[in-house]
Amino acid sequence: MNDTLTCGHDFSPSNYRLQGAVHQCYACHRERMEARRAKNRERDDAIVADHRAGVSKDVLAKTHRLCLNRIYNIIRANTPKQNRLTSDPLFPERAMQRAAELSNTRVEELKSHWREKHLVKARWCVMAAMHERGVGYKSIGRRLGGRDHTTIIYGVRQAGIFSERSPEFRAMLDQVRAA
Fold first, then answer.
1. Which residues, 6+ apart, have CB-to-CB distance to 97 below 8 Å?
2. pLDDT (tens digit per residue) in 145-157
3. Cα–Cα distance between 40 and 107 in angstroms, integer?
4. Which of 11, 62, 109, 154 is least surrounded by CB atoms within 10 angstroms?
5. Domain ranges in the chain?
């Protein structure tokens, strides 16, 4: 059994006691961190010296532009292309109304905490349709009778599973989506 740490130290029982190997590894790690800090300090001092001399104004401007471009790209990548809910703010109400019609119930029953099968499936359709439109889990939960966001996550997953298995459920989900 010959085990080697990432720094290259061998800590097999025949060579070292485990405690000694760990201390040696920490010392090696500390040395590497100090070397890295010294290198960064030298680099920072060189940048400051160049900046004071006026040599690196172009470099500083390019670096500044690169940072701004990176920030812009991160924001753009994490922002939805279109806020689909604001383009149709009445969709959640229409979806609940359509699901209630298809399951022969009232919207109040969809918002209730009853666990009858036809109500649960209708709720799942509404949850999935609203989620696809960009409504947040908490907002869906508030609209459906104050449910927790984890309940909505579970409902959206179940809607995906049932839409693959059941053509009737898929048809109901498609009609709720089209509401």
1. 107, 179
2. 999 999 999 999 9
3. 63
4. 62
5. 18-77, 85-177
Cα–Cα distance measured from residue 147 to residue 100, given in angstroms and rounded to the nearest whole number: 18
Q: Are 28 and 9 within 8 A, CB to CB?
A: yes
**Cα-based distances in Å from 146 to 86, 100, 116:** 22, 18, 18
Q: Which of 105, 136, 141 is nearest to 122 (CA)?
A: 105
Cβ-based neighbour number of residue 160 at 10 Å: 14
Strand partners, 10: 4
Over residues 119-137, the pLDDT tens digits come to 999 999 999 999 998 889 9
* Residues in Cβ contact with 149 at an 8 Å cutoff, skipping those fewer than 6 apart: 137, 138, 140, 141
The two tokens of residue 8 are 């290259």
Q: What would be the CATH architecture of the domain defined by 85-177? A: Orthogonal Bundle (1.10)
